[in-house]
Amino acid sequence: MKSPIEGLQIPQDWQIAPISSLADFRRGISWRKQDESPPGEGTLVISIPNIKDGWIDYQSKFNHYIDIGIPASKLLREGDIVFVGSSGSIHNVGRNARFSQATENSIAFASFTFTARPNPSVVDSHFFYFLVNSDLVPFQAFCKRAADGKFNFQLRDFASRLVVPLPPLVEQKAIARELAAVKRAIEAQEQIIQITTELKKALMQKLFSEGFRGEPQKETEIGLVPESWGVVPLSDVCRFQSGGTPSKQNPDFWQGTIPWVSPKDMKRPRLNDVADHISIEALESGSKLAPAGSVFVVVRGMILAKTVPVALATVPMAINQDIKAIVPGAELRSDFLLYALEAFRESMFKKVGRSGHGTATLMGHEVAAFKIPLPDMQTQEEIAYAFQNIERKKELHEQKYTSIQALFSTLLHELMAAKTRVNQLNLNTELIP
């Protein structure tokens, strides 16, 4: 294995230290099934599902509680970092979180996890947390694949072989402060994005049941809607278009400029481009082009989280066989249709069945028969405009989140590798308040 610090120019006041000299590493506890307690009783044991990327999920449905004597060495203390030590994906090994919960109750950590307890006389605990999340600590390089296919972290090998650059304690603390400030900015953007998502959901529930004008409501087969609104099946106001996949045997079909949409692209409410593109020849071979303003619905395979993914095409696009295009008629705005399907897609999920191969499938006739509310065109426009404003706000903060994440990744490497010294920093104040 090539050392991550090979070729680094280390300042004279820094040292190269074995990682084992910075922290005490320990594996977690094992127990028998009969040692387990009912939920909420005994000692909570943090296991792999509890360890998220940077935080610990104390409410996981996979929580374990045990009622046996637990050595102090297997209990978490403030400042400990708990790591995933085994996974079917090598990229999950080393995922970690810093334990900082103040609690009267002891919390243990399980086998197939391990912890690091930083030595405060040598290393600042916050600096150490950022260090082990930098590219100078390659957990995947110390994994071995077991007979069951899982990748197991070789803790002893890691602790005995890995060396890292270490600045003086004063500089460690300064580095940790700067990185923590960027992290807080990232978390602030995450919180705004989450709030905006919840606001959109709440507004959907309100507008599609009450409208804008405070008029009386009526009970329908899709729930309460304003009295003046209609409720219609999609087949009354839309036409439908299926998709397909051009032959992979003809590379020319995949060298064009026409966006070709598959379920993996359905991550945003509006699509103006996607990863794959096909040629005019591919269209002529049997694929069809859905017009701009079509609303795409995923009908096969990837239907998750009790919802059905939907997205609006802002330009003409081709689609694969797992997607159906809904093309609205003259009395239905495409953006209103998008939001109506978003608002009622949990109901659409109830129409999902299983094909003969066990694949989640939404049949074409179920899409055609699916009912949506239908107000007048002015109300459709007002509702669409309200949601577009929320989406623009969310997109703005998603872009800012992405920018700050990129800044953090660059800064983490630069500071840990001494390519930039902390006293040379001039952070972008537009990104970091």
* DSSP helix fraction: 25-40%
Number of strands: 27
**Poorly predicted sequence stretches spanning 5 or more consecutive residues:** none
Q: Given this structure, which CATH class of the largest domain is correct?
A: Alpha Beta
Output the CATH topology of the largest domain. Adenine-n6-DNA-methyltransferase TaqI, Chain A, domain 2
Largest sheet: 5 strands, mixed
Measured distance between first and last alpha carbons: 40 Å
Describe what you observe in this structure.
The chain has 433 residues and is α+β, with helices and mostly antiparallel strands. It has 3 domains: 15-166, DNA methylase specificity domains (Adenine-n6-DNA-methyltransferase TaqI, Chain A, domain 2), CATH 3.90.220.20; 168-228 and 376-433, Bipartite methylase S protein (Helix Hairpins), CATH 1.10.287.1120; 230-374, DNA methylase specificity domains (Adenine-n6-DNA-methyltransferase TaqI, Chain A, domain 2). The chain is built from 8 helices and 27 strands. The strands form 9 sheets. Strands 16-24-21-22-18 form a 5-stranded mixed sheet. Helix 3 runs antiparallel to helix 8. It is elongated, with a radius of gyration of 27 Å. The two termini are 40 Å apart.
What's a quick, concise take on this entry?
The chain is an alpha+beta fold and 433 residues long. The protein has helices spanning 125-132, 155-161, 169-210, 234-237, 280-284, 334-349, 364-369, 377-416, and strands at 15-18, 23-27, 43-46, 64-66, 81-84, 86-87, 96-98, 107-109, 113-118, 143-145, 151-153, 163-166, 217-220, 223-226, 230-233, 238-242, 258-261, 270-271, 276-278, 289-290, 295-298, 310-313, 317-319, 323-328, 353-354, 360-361, 371-374.
